[in-house]
Amino acid sequence: xxxxxxxxxxxxxxxxxxxxxxxxxxxxxxxLFVVFPxxxxxxxxxxxxxxxxxxx
Amino acid sequence: MVGKHRGGWDFSAAAETPAGALRPRKRRxxxxxxxxxxxxxxxxxxxxxxxxxxxxxxxxxxxxxRxxxxxxxxxxxxxxxxxxxxxxxxAGELLxxxxxxxxLFVVYExxxxxxxxxxxxAQLHRQLATAWQRGQDPLKGQDRLNLPVGKxxxxxxxxxxxxLYIPEFGKDFARTIVQGTSDGDLEAGPGHYVTxxxxxxxGNFAVAGHRVxxxxxxxxxxxxxxGDTIVxxxxxxxxxxxxxxxxxxxxAASKLADPARRAAAIAAALAAPDSQGxxxxxxxxxxxxxxxxxxxxxxxxxxxxxxxxxxTCHPKYSADKRMIVHAQLIRAVPHxxxxxxxxxxxxxx
Lengths: 56, 349
Known about the structure:
The structure holds two protein chains of two kinds.
Chain A: H1 2-8, H2 13-39
Chain B: E1 3-5, E2 8-10, H1 11-22, H2 43-54, H3 59-72, H4 75-133, E3 160-165, E4 174-179, H5 183-188, E5 191-192, E6 203-208, E7 229-233, E8 237-243, H6 247-253, H7 259-271, E9 281-284, E10 306-314, E11 321-334
Parallel strand pairs in B: 4-5, 6-10
Antiparallel strand pairs in B: 1-2, 3-4, 3-7, 5-6, 7-8, 8-11, 9-11, 10-11
Helix pairs in contact in B: 1-2, 1-3, 1-4, 6-7
């Protein structure tokens, strides 16, 4: 999959690296600001940010 | 698959042939540059590169080997090999991607969730300030000191009704307390346990807050010591609470030089119960509801004083236990314009 994307990016190595980084940033932003905020309340309580109450 | 070649293993035939079969026709034969296919997995590729880099002058050889290698494979053999390779590569990439997404989720939980929570908290804070300016009080003035326990106003959950100031958490630490302790409520700010009392009331005003992520209002709850002040502001009054625990033991403990011993002594000072059996700080199991009772840990006792209890998860980055801090009301002053109480920086009343 990644090889396929890489071969389809135009330009030389430097340009491709730049485009690859942009793609990574785009996907990360989509996950962090859209997907995770939507999914998080639907997941079971996670121990990281944890439930903080004593009555559940 | 891998051919013996001049007394050594020649991986180039194995690596090139099936991979070449995957590529468009025009790429075959032209030597691909190193790094041209970063998606390739397995040691074969690196061996191939190393082999051809070190073995200068044998390019011609390996080139002909490559063709010989491909001739040796029958069609179906090559297909199944290609399929297997393709599957392995796809599976590897999928697993790596899953790992990266999970790591990103941790980043979201610990840092990015704060961005959303701070936004909600700011909104809540503005709404309460506006309501107060208009003379509206969500508590309807019922946060009076001597209101009997059990007589509480009905507040809709998600409604902000008081501000919390803890100078120990920083000069500018101020959070609007929201009614309710559901996930949604707690994302907006520290949440008031709906069954517990209101600020200033005799009994226990209990508030839960996140330790890590989601605005992390109680990130530093472990930094509170006996005698530290916690200030709560409602539409009508300022309430000043003081963290319980042995202040003399804390004063002695903070003079200790050895960090480990000092920390242990401070913890002991915080854990010391007062005359009514309430400690300044305790670490309890997640189901220890008795800590938010009107008299904490004494469910059948009758409350005679106004307490404040803060709860958060413990240890940091975990939900195994709860850290509980208890404080006692030491004074209450009515609002006087925008003048702050003495316990806050620049306060006069």
